[in-house]
Amino acid sequence: MKVTAPPWIEPCSELECFMRGLERRNPGQTEFHQAVREFAESVMPYVLENPKYEKAQILERMTEPDRVIIFRVTWEDDEGNVRVNRAWRVQFNNSIGPYKGGLRFHPEVTLDTLKFLGFEQTFKNSLTGLPMGGAKGGANFNPKGKSDREVMRFCQSLMTELNRHIGEDTDVPAGDIGVGSREISFLFGQYKRLQNRFVGALTGKGIAFGGSLIRTEATGYGCVYFCENMLNHVGDSVQGKTCVVSGSGNVATYAVEKATQLGAKAVAMSDSSGFIHDPDGIDAEKLAFIQELKQVKRGRISEYVVQFPHATYHSGERPWTIPCDLAFPCATQNELNLSEANVLMRNGVKAVSEGANMPTELDAVHAFLQAKVMFAPAKAANAGGVAVSGLEQSQNSLRMAWSREEVDKRLQGIMHDIHSKCVQHGVENGFVNYVKGANLAGFIKVADAMCAYGIV
Ligand code: NAP
């Protein structure tokens, strides 16, 4: 391969040279490095085969966000103490549509996390076929243990700054970890008040004020639909399979709901403190208990075994030791490592479908691919959430509300199309490498738009 290393570093392959430059320009941002490396591994050979991209320095341009907004959020807690947090909006790339991506409230949120998420979002949104650019935002605010009024004051203060950077044709945020319907409602209420405009500048809104049916369920449902497409492609289906799902938030609970509706049995779920194992399966009634526990009472998954004593709770552990056919990592990034991947494979896992963003460490991804386990990367598998957000934007612009059946049908169609694009670009000797397929399909559309705009 041609050596393009700057003179001050050792000769290296194009991929390594590119990564060294990226790591030097973004010191300490290890999650961002990981997300870019996974992408560049797939895309670099294609870029080298197509000199127009290399000449346009397309990878260097794509890995630099359009802009990053960083701001202080000052608010008052229930005891009258002044509290200060930091918030960000990373507007990564708007080549194919207005910026779009969630807001995350979590004490460990950093610019690094939001850059990896905004980068991934760009290609995920491209895969949906809808006109959406990529962005991500959030704050190092911990909603756990805060009263509703405290969360409201925080959201209002955050939106007081954020409102001037977003809008229905500019940037349309949504929810993510720690930002559910309560937070989106407070944020939208403040946006509307400041702008005096009722427009679709946020998605994930309540049904009474411009939200879309199925948006809440879309990421988890879509992740299972994608898995069903992968299994159908090899003449199999979700029906009758045993599933392990990490997390017990929005994505995890609706993944369990859809898998159960399609005839599978989910036997484990988790939160950041540990996991529960229920060999009888987490049926609709037990899932309703978890949803009430986590979303309304804001409790811990350990309380499941108090209600259902035949199940077991495993404190401080992740659920990947439980034998299963299908694994759905739906909690957070880097929650499934190489040794856990090896355990899953020893136990006969057939498919892994990522509901969370980058939940699988890169060497674990490589191991699944090498063993020819069907592996659906987040960009493809969890795109259902942003796809229905896109449909929410369309409904807002049309001033219409589609039925549950209509939105679900469109979601299933979009997941099917994403699967087809992955197959088109990812087949290698009869095996579908969904990582390569998703990365290439997402890349080509954004790259071609950027090239068409000239040198910008
Ligand atoms: P959520 O409703 O806030 O739930 C997050 C779940 O993950 C909770 O069970 C939480 O446990 C657990 N969790 C959080 N941090 C953790 C950690 N460090 N270690 C272990 N578990 C942890 O969030 P969500 O919307 O379901 O999002 C989950 C994932 O899906 C994220 O990667 C997100 O980016 C991705 N995603 C979400 C959407 C969407 O539409 N919501 C769309 C695309 C992708 P605790 O209760 O203990 O905190």
TrEMBL record:
- Domain Glutamate/phenylalanine/leucine/valine/L-tryptophan dehydrogenase C-terminal residues, every copy: 212-454
**Record Gene3D superfamilies:** Glutamate Dehydrogenase, chain A, domain 3, Leucine Dehydrogenase, chain A, domain 1, NAD(P)-binding Rossmann-like Domain
Give a single Pfam family match: ELFV_dehydrog_N
The alphabetized UniProt keywords are: Oxidoreductase
By sequence similarity, the record places it as follows: Belongs to the Glu/Leu/Phe/Val dehydrogenases family.
How is the quaternary structure described? Homohexamer.
State the protein's name. Glutamate dehydrogenase
